[in-house]
Design brief:
about 60 residues, alpha+beta, about 55% helix, elongated
Length: about 60
């Protein structure tokens, strides 16, 4: 028995990640190294991408 797994990434994910990195570069000088805001933002945006930008299909 063979299972085929297909992962589809939405077209907007790469531009979204580029803008997200730009946002981090802009706000990074104003945050401390161990600031929990960075972790919170990463969890928030990665959850958004996982919910709406990635689809897994198994046949």
């Amino acid at each position: 028995m063979t299972t085929k797994l297909t992962v589809k990434v939405a077209w907007w994910v790469q531009p979204y990640l580029d803008l997200l990195m730009l946002m981090f570069y802009v706000i990074a000088p104003f945050l401390e190294e161990d600031d929990p805001t960075i972790d919170w933002l990463l969890k928030l945006h990665s959850g958004f991408i996982c919910r709406f930008g990635i689809r897994c299909l198994a046949d």
